[in-house]
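Re: the 443-residue chain
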Amino acid sequence: MTNTLEIKRGLDLRIAGGIEKAKVEREVKPKMVAICPDDFPGLVPKPDVKEGAAIKAGEPLFHDKKYEEIKVVSPVSGIVKSVERGERRKILKFVIESDGDAAKTFDTTVKNAEDAKRLLSESGLWAFMSQRPYGIVPKYDVTPRDIFVSGFDSAPLAPDYALLLDGKDKELAAGVKLLAMLTPGKVYVSRRAGAKDIAGAEMVTIKGPHPAGIVGVMINNIAPVNKGETVWTLDAVTLARIGGLALTGKVDFSAIVALTGSEIEKPHYLKTTIGAELSPILSDMLRKKKRNKRVISGNVLVGQIESPEGYLHFPYRQITVIPEGDDKVEFMGWASFSPKKMSVSRSFPGHFLSRLFKPDARINGGRRAMIMSGEYDEVMPMDILPEFLIKAILSRNIDQMEQLGIYEVVPEDFALAEYVDTSKLELQKIVAEGLEYLRKELE
């Protein structure tokens, strides 16, 4: 069965640095890879390896303190070069030096839901999923009402899933079949018009601008999450990994990555490994102009800032490089009427131009009191009151947070609202802190 949604509220950012050819141009085999526990919210890591230990691809690096069944595994075989720690000995990353292709093979005998849970947790793919409420790695002892899969990415300069999933029809169908064993409900998969059906899935065709591609929009418009309910979410790339595991007994840790942004000489796709070091990927790819550049693992709205010597973060499919902007001196500063300035406000000429812009990382303004203007509603196609929800989170009013839909949202849902926010509030950070506060209070 197919559902169709037409999203009218939203915004497609016209940013330069997109990829013209949907083709993998090169392959980068990293010498070093890193897995960061912070990429998997909700997990409290307990190491399963020490520095200097030999490890195969698929063998565990760490497990969750509360649910020992949930493991995160190494994407390569090699030597654990370091276990880097921060304040209060918090584990920041596991760095592995690759030395070969040895990989663990998993038992794919799946007769019931328990077998499916065992396979996903032992292979590390359980941690690639998320649950709502709270936006954390799914709890091992909770059965989801439904499972939602985002089948395309509408974010700025996002990779084309048609390329990422090319030739993986069998894997996608096998992934849906395995996930269907874990829920009494349905497995929903979103797509753009014209994309193929996936056997066993409830397909949802979504039309409209970003954030049409984020899973929260599909959940809110198809089957909202109520208090006491749990749903799981993942992307179609992870779905294909799950299906490949079910068919072969091995996890495919390769990743097709979109290298994008106005500071990249030639934006293109490349094939590498999840968690890959960025230095060989970015080598000779950055524009030669001497100015500070911001490297983002992910897209400009929700990606993580990294150094050029850093590593690729989950979900391991995009790198964006834009100017930092700290070298610019503009007349009138953020209030400049330059047509080169990208803006959603009709007060600036750039609003009326159809050109591609080259924005930098400046916030162009200072933080100020929250303005109740309705501007969040213009870019959030969800049946919630975002401004009132933010106020409830800031005041830590749990009753109001629940009534206003806190269980339905994760930080990503507020990314566009944060971009257009006149008050320059860190909405994603506010929502993340509110969800963590709610989880600790209620659990």
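The chain is about 20% helix and 20% strand.
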